[in-house]
């Protein structure tokens, strides 16, 4: 058995994640493994120092790129650096929550296997955090039973196992320099190539939630990405499909007018201490409609 664990990161200290993965890997007899941490041009010197220190751990390498190339490019770079045939991609802000996490992937069949994620964090401390509210709102839709209904449309690069040759033959699209949707398009490409995405119940925990202003900005960045690649992503985004239907109608015109008049107020509310997921959904629709 062999496994390359690939962790792309940007200004995120994944020290605890690496130690948890090493602890599990040591317990698996006959496993040859490595952990590669790919830094995509981080700017936080303290974080960089912590990541560099991880190279002193056994089976662990820190690979730094001086310039940020984007989420797709750093993942493709890690694939080329990996030495083993099976690759496990894990986002640096995820956390191990099951003692059998690595073992379940090693026992899984399929060229591409997605394990999903669960939402962690303390609800009492995070009740005013918009990202936390949003993830909890969507959590049921990411259960394995729901993912199996549309295997290629509910896939994320935060936690998946893949054959190295699949990634070499079908790399992530490096036109995606900004946040969002590179994994959605890759799921579509795999389906077109006849490669099935297997879904299993093997989650990581999502415990890190940026502040409201940062999350709103990230959401807007993702919407710009969706607009740029709207032709390729048709049928793979509910928001895109809805906008295509409403855009030429009177309802669409009213939504654009609403966003022009009230969008700034909605944004201030979302960035403040009392946001709501419903308001976020309205803001996203109006923001995306105005991009048209």
Largest sheet: 7 strands, mixed
- Kindly report how far apart the N and C termini lie: 50 Å
Net shape: globular
Major sheet: arrangement of strands: 3-2-1-4-8-6-9
Poorly predicted residue ranges:
none
**Strand-pairing-aware structural class:** alpha/beta
Helical segment count: 14
H-E order: EHEHEHEEHEEHHHEHHEEHHHHH
Instruction: Name the helicity range.
Output: 40-55%
Mean pLDDT: 93
Beta-strand portion reads 15-25%
Number of strands: 10
User: What Rg, in angstroms, do the CA atoms define?
Assistant: 20 Å
Textual characterization of the structure:
The protein has 292 residues and is an alpha/beta fold. It has 14 helices and ten strands. Strands 3-2-1-4-8-6-9 form a seven-stranded mixed beta sheet, with helices on both faces. β2, α2 and β3 form a beta-alpha-beta unit. The longest helix has 22 residues. It is globular, with a radius of gyration of 20 Å. The termini are far apart. The model has no long low-confidence stretch (mean pLDDT 93).
């Amino acid at each position: 058995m062999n496994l390359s664990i690939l962790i792309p990161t940007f200004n995120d200290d994944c020290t605890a994640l690496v130690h948890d993965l090493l602890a599990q890997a040591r317990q698996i007899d006959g496993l040859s493994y490595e952990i590669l941490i790919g830094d995509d041009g981080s700017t936080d010197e303290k974080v960089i120092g912590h990541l560099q220190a991880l190279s002193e751990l056994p089976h662990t390498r820190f690979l730094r790129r001086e310039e940020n190339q984007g989420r797709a490019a750093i993942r493709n770079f890690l694939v080329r650096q990996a030495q083993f045939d099976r690759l496990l991609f894990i986002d640096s802000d995820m956390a191990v929550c099951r003692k059998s996490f690595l073992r379940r992937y090693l026992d899984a069949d399929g060229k591409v296997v997605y394990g999903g994620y669960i939402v962690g964090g303390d609800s009492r401390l995070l009740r005013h955090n918009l990202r936390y509210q949003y993830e909890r709102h969507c959590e049921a839709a990411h259960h394995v039973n729901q993912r199996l209904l549309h295997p290629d449309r509910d896939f994320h690069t935060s936690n998946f196992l893949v054959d190295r040759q699949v990634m070499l033959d079908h790399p992530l699209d490096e036109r995606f320099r900004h946040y969002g949707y590179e994994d959605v398009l890759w799921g579509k490409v795999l389906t077109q190539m006849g490669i099935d995405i297997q879904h299993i119940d093997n989650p990581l925990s999502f415990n890190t939630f940026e502040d409201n202003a940062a999350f709103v900005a990230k959401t807007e960045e993702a919407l710009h990405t969706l607009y740029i690649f709207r032709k390729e992503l048709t049928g793979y985004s509910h928001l895109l499909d809805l906008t295509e239907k409403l855009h030429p109608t009177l309802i669409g015109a009213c939504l654009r007018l609403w966003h022009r008049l009230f969008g700034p107020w909605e944004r201030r509310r979302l960035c403040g201490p009392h946001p709501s997921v419903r308001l976020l959904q309205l803001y996203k629709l109006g923001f995306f409609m105005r991009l048209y």
